[in-house]
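Morning run. Coffee first, then this:
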Amino acid sequence: MTTKGKIAKVYINGRLIGFHEHPEKLTQDLIATRRSNGFDPQVNVAFHKDTNELYINTDAGRVQRPVIVVENGKPSIKEEHLRKVSEGKFSWQDLVKQGFIEYLDPEEEENALIAADEKSLTKEHTHMEINPIAILSLVTSMIPYVQHDMAGKALHGAKMFKQSLGISGINFNLRSDTEGYLLYYPQKSLVKTKTMSLLDLDKRPQTQNLVVAIIPYRIFNTLDALVLNKASIERGVGRSAYYRTYEGIQHRYPGGQTDKFERPNEETVGYLGEEPYKNVGEDGLVNIGQFVGDKEIVIGRTSPPRFLEEISEFGVVKEKRRDSSVSTRKGKPGVVDRVMITESDDGNKLAKIKIRSTMVPEVGDKFSSRHGQKGVVGAIIPEADLPFTADGVKPDLIINPHSIPSRMTMGHLLEMLGGKVSSLKGDEIDGTPFSSLGKEELMHMLKEKGLRHDGKETFYDGVTGERITGEVFIGVIAYRRLFHMVAHKMQARARGPVQILTRQPTEGKEKEGGLRFGEMEGETLVGHGAAMLLQEKFIEDSDRAVELVCEKCGVIGVHDQIRNRKYCPLCDSSRVYPVEMSYGFKLMLDELKALGIFPKIVIGDKA
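And here it is:
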């Protein structure tokens, strides 16, 4: 309650516009006026008791959501209104204008008590959800039984919707995106939500329904790893295509010179030899269906020289063209899927080459259910060695039992039950959050079909044929293959390019860079007392340099190669001695000098 006589501040869009003695009454009056269509329904009013401030928001960009108005514990929408809506006499806008439904923004929502459904309404409630699923976002509401999952894992599962492979669009063969993925055999989910139907997700699915068993399998599915059935992969589980488009433009230069699509010859500056150009025709382009390996040329192109060449002995300027061909990226070989020749915005000839690689699941690839239960393939096991049920059913995928209790993804288990029921019934199961088919109903349906109601079954070891002690939970659940593939991440380097400035190895897979051995990694070696390994990683494998240091001045000395003389640039002393250091340290000394700081290195004999 407001303190008597204390005047409240009134703000519109964050700007103080005045004061009012009865802010609560003003709030109620404004809301009543809005509900009777007195002003725009998108205006929001919120009174903060703690700060005694009234906020009125009309600005753009606010996130609002519709809820049903509740008066005296009863929803304002009655049966007759719903009947009029179904008959087409009432539209959504009519419901909003007449004050049955109102839009709340986060600020006004702070003062509202919203009931999930009619059963949970009390006198204190101010609003009711149109449908409890509206609490969730579009993506989160596509997770079946998400109300049984821990919030963090539901968010995790929702985030991975964007990483899953599927059909991005049925015109994928005409598109020339820089990167693209296509799942070969997508299946619509057996356990669905209403949101998936609204979005027509069945027309462009991104999952495959797999038989999943929850059991440890000979250390291969420790922690988050999972075991895949080799025969399932051969039948098409997770098989996908990766598309990469390379483009080259015939640039025009001042003076009338242009690039040219052609196969470079021996006279071209930067010619790489016969081998890299073996796929390229006379027009400089590869043929459709041609296989191209790593770092092989797909567009042969020559450019005019950067500078005017010297006049040859015959008095004619002979142009020595340079090679500017386009090659495939490292670790991304494939088959030429499409060759397109067109024009760029400025009228130059443009060639686009689309490369297709078939990505068969391998050890290290990532899979995930819709409940945030992600994992990498730890092993691909022949079907004969996998555990099997009394009916001879072998799982496509095996996950670790420890991944369920700590993450509290009960929705994952319910979806497995639902998928099992769906497979037996031949019908889709509704897993819509807050209005899904319950656990008891699923169990009853399983029992009717002659299976155990709890989803567990007796298993036999595929290697020894012995019965496995205890029962194993097995079901059918929609799994997604994610675009994080080990083939695109694998990187190795022995010796390679270095940066010009620091003389340290380059970074990044594309530049054949090294892996960063950072501060924290260095600290672990210090903690283990591995001094020589620290020296090796930070100096020898990185930017080891031997510099001359003046004993008197402590500055870096000079080695005059021509006169074969070593001296100090400050005092001209010849008492300079070689010191092993990181080139990065020498660079830092130079940068300190540039700032006007004079660093000295004190050297002496080893004790």
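The mean pLDDT is 90. Good start to the day.
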